[in-house]
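#onboarding

Welcome to the new folks! Below is a worked example of what a typical request in this channel looks like: someone posts a single protein sequence, and someone else replies with the predicted structure as tokens. Don't worry about understanding the tokens yet, we'll cover that in week two.

Example request:
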Amino acid sequence: MSKRVHTREAQRQRTEFYESGKILDADPATRHLSVCWICTLRIDYEQAPGTTTDSHTLDHYYPVEDFPELQNDPDNFRHAHFDCNSSRGKGDAERGLGDPMPAWWG
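Example response:
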């Protein structure tokens, strides 16, 4: 049985985290803070969260299944692609799944 708890507060935090990533992505000086923490590639913030493989999803550094007390802890939140987060599951992230962004991108 899942240890994940769905509340209005959790949804508010998800929305707020997505919006903060979108703001960071819009500024080339802070864009590096909004990329997928798993593959380090840029996230498509134009798509609604969780709707495409490259769209945003909130990932938990420490999986909720193992650390339910950290589910709503913002220090445990990471920006991730929907696909990277789904592929990771609750296992360790295999960092560097994609190519790093070229210097001219930023």
